[in-house]
Amino acid sequence: MTTTPSIPTAETVWTNKLYSDGWRAGSAGTIDVIEPATGEVLATVGAASPNEVATAAKSALVAQAKWAAMLPNDRAAILFKAAEIFEKAVPEMSLFIARETGGLLAKGQREVHAAAHIVQAAASMPLQPQGLVLPQMTGNFNFAQRVPRGVIAVISPFNFPLILSIRAVAPALAVGNAVILKPDPQTPIGGGLFIAKVFEEAGLPEGLLHVLPGGADVGEALCTDPNISMVSFTGSTAAGRKVGEICGRHLKKVALELGGKNPLIVLDDADVDVAASNAAWGSYLFQGQICMSTGIVFAHAAIAEKLTAKLSEKAKGLRIGNPATEQVAIGPMINQRQRDRVHAIVQEAVQQGAKLAAGGTYKDLFYAPTVLSGVRPGMRAFEEEIFGPVAVVVTIASDDEAVALANQSAYGLAAGILSKDVGRAMALGQRLKIGLLHINDQTVKDDHVNPFGGRGASGNGSSIGGPGDWEEFTQWQWVTMKKHATAYPF
Predict the structure, then answer these.
(1) I need a surface site. Which of 3, 177, 283, 347 has the fewest CB within 10 A?
(2) Order of all β-strands in the sheet with 390-396
(3) Among this protein's residues, is 291 annotated catalytic?
């Protein structure tokens, strides 16, 4: 008979601690986890220093060799157990994640259920074919196999902390790597210590997973440590450029999943009511703090005014408040710095001639859902990822103009196209320089089976998830064999 594992969220194993060869104090002191909706301290965890990165990497390197040599069935069994623990811990974990991030309870539930599915999918990887028999061009037996990279560093953000950590941690472990995880210091429990606790209870051998909450100095140490072979980074484009630059200097494999200015293109034959619903969901879900958020709505001139009005009605009708205690649609921004940046972009757009159709106000960290129309190229609201609850509406005259405006962006993550003519929408979509294309849907879409990644300022072309995991977390090794050694002319 199995029992439900205890995943406590208050006074627990991680109080004042981090996870590295067991639960212990961090050498850089502690980090207070602040609830954005109330400003209260939810928990206090250990803070890592760069010295701990070096110690963890050496430990992980030793543990990884033994882990990679373990029978695939045994590795898979540990991951399947971890998935089971995640599923049973949904009530406790989801509420804490909602409070830690300022998101809706449904968002927290989605994260934990998704974590279970991601780990289940990863658990199947050790049992899949891992190589190819190649043609015998010189009489040798000739094959290629996928082998682990070694020790992989994962740096994850605050917005979907559990999903955006576990989607790298689980497949990396599954194919035989060790992992050092640095969650965002604003969300170290949902983004890291929950994962450590689950894998500890699932029986993962010690030394294979280290969770080191910390600042930029810890991130830089992960990029420079010689025992770490790869860095998987999810976060802002500005931070991603720094990570890529440092890893490049050290000839280290790096996967960058960065920001987006994702267009939702609404053609003249689209249902305006449905389009307004899609635009509101894509723009306001989790306060717009998602890399896939709808960053700009390109609306055909024939329906732009009507769409803007309906979208503004929706924005004004969305209830704002503490998602942990109230039935609301909009929660708080993650911090004051981000709130102030969003407000500055909105104010600047209005000063430059844009129309504020809804919102543009805030109280504490709660920013009202906002609609800006009349936005033009050159404005920050047009060019930059806002990462807040702001819908930017731009009027277009044709499909060609939509493509031209969308493709002039430095970003290239996701796009949605709404039209009753699927062929027309698909033809338009095939001209867009993006990694994720959604016909008759908005831009916030993801699942554990799809390769996820963008172009340009949205990433370095790598993909994570589904078939992308094999490319990310293993590398090819070519092997030849002869029956016996033979002499050469020299």
Answers:
(1) 3
(2) 355-358, 370-373, 390-396, 294-300, 262-266, 414-418, 436-439
(3) yes
